[in-house]
Amino acid sequence: MVLRTQKVRLYPNKTMQKVLDDLCDYRRYCWNAGLALWNDMYEEALILDDKRLRPNEYKVRNELVANKADWQYRFSARCLRLAISDLNKAWKNFFDKAQVDWGKPRFKSKKATRQGFKTDRAKIIKGKLLLDKPHGIKNWYDIHMSGAKLLTGELKVVSIYRENGKYWASLPFEVNIETKPKTDHVTAIDVNVGHINYTEGKINTLPDDLKHLYKRIKHYQRTLARKRVVNGKRATKSNNYVKTRAKLQRDYRKVANIQHDIMQKFTTQLVEEYDKIVIEDLAVKEMQMTHVASKGLQRSMFGYFRQILSYKCDWNGKKLILADKYYPSTQRCSKCGHIKTGEEKVGLNGNLKYRTKHNEYICYECGSVMDRDENAVYNLLALIN
Fold first, then answer.
1. N or C end of the chain: smaller count of CB under 10 Å?
2. What tens digit of pLDDT does each residue of 146-161 get?
3. Hey, where are the domains in the chain?
4. What is the chain's Cα-based Rg?
5. 294-353 pLDDT per residue, tens
6. Cα dist. 5→118, 122, 166, 253 in Å?
7. Would you indicate the residue range of the signal peptide (predicted)?
């Protein structure tokens, strides 16, 4: 059994729009109230040096439930419970510095463009989403949705969120899947800014339509920067500002859709054609040295690629091999095994001493001349043998 999540667009009527908006606000209230209480308990435990006073999910949740105000009974109790459950996970991650986005949980802002909540009592009835109805509420309706392919399996915790005036839901289903047939083929993948190399060729992750969208995003960002202050006053609520911001957010959604489509199709192709796949365990955070490099790495979606490839390999019984982040796939010659060191190393701008290009690899031991990325692919492939 595996969890498969489908993202769908919701079309609530005006009554249910108000319900969803209120639940988003209530979820934010529960998170912030729980986090404030958690911080107080944690500081008290530190000051008194008493581990028994340390907060946990049950203490915080029971305290909030015991002090519920009358207006809170209009909302589903699951909203509060799941908010504190997520807060508990966030605090556990805070003590695990190996996490990618390690840090202390923060308060949620009502100004954030994305607001949402979770429920584990939602149902799918005749292709519509039905939320759990609190006591004392008369008007309650099913929510139309689109974008779902297969609504089969056991529905788990549903995440519903509002972004830029539109409503979305992530529907996780626990399903049985058939694994892909074995092919006895292996491959290695070298991810780069703008493209991904593997044994059969190269995938372009920065097509022309994405380049065009990035130019438009840059234009809208500059336009918004000029509209923020007019005649010495903040003008972020003017009609022109709101229109431009909506266009910017629309293009961000288009970019994300194109990127996700490329990654999903490529990873599906990989698990269908290969039994063993080798990729590098890149330290992306450490690679973001400059503003330009950081932007290129974020657009290339290294982390997202590894995430979806990992779970697709698990689903289909394929083996994903991670090369150590210190493995010299770029510096090693795939022909003779010589590893460049010191002034011979190939950097982002090639090699300054020998004036080689960024995408050029020249071995000074055996004289081989290769494409830098293809050489890295063959070095990664050697880890399987």
1. C
2. 988 777 888 899 999 9
3. 2-175, 186-323
4. 25
5. 565 566 678 888 889 998 998 888 999 888 888 888 888 888 888 888 877 877 677 777
6. 14, 14, 19, 19
7. none
Could you read off the pLDDT of 65-120 as tens digits, one per residue?
A: 999 999 998 898 899 999 999 999 998 888 876 665 667 899 999 988 899 999 99
Which residue shows structure tokens 């031991």? 365
